[in-house]
Amino acid sequence: MSQKSWEGRVTTFAMEASTGLRELAEPVLSGDRVKRQIERAARAAGLSYWRAFDIWYGKARRVDAQELEAIRAAKARRSEDQAHELSAIAADFDALAERFARMASRGGGPGHPEMGALAGRVRRLADGVRR
Fold first, then answer.
1. What domain of life does the UniProt record list for this protein's source (predicted)?
2. Which residues lie closer than 8 Å to 32 by C-beta, 6 or more apart?
3. DSSP E strand stretches across 49-99
4. 45 lies in a domain?
5. Are residues 86 and 55 part of one domain?
6. Is this model's pTM higher than 0.70 or not?
7. 115: CB partners within 8 A, 6+ apart
C-alpha cells in the first residue's frame, strides 16, 4: 500500500473522529466555551479530555480504531436516545390532542369550537415528530 493511500485513510478517520466529537458536543448553548464542548464530547465517547482535544483540533497523529468506534457508538447511543425522546413527545402530543378533542366535544365555553381544530393540529404535529 502506498503511503499516499494510507495517509488519505488516516486523514479521513481523523476527520470523521473530529466531526463526531463536534456532533457529540451538541447542542451548543449560548456562552458555551469550546473547552466545555470538548469535555462533553470526551465524556460521551469515553475519551480523556486531552485526547479529545487533540482529535477535535486535528492535532492527533493517529486515531485508533477503538477511539473511532467509541465515537461512533456514542453517536449511535445519542441517536437512539433522541428517537426515544421524540417518541415520548409524540405520545404527549397524542394525549394533548385527545384532551382537546374531549374538551371540544363537551362544548359550552368560549373557544371550544377551536379546540377540535387545535386537536387536529396537535395530532399532525405528533405525526411529524414520529417521522
1. Bacteria
2. none
3. none
4. yes
5. no
6. no
7. 100, 101, 103, 104
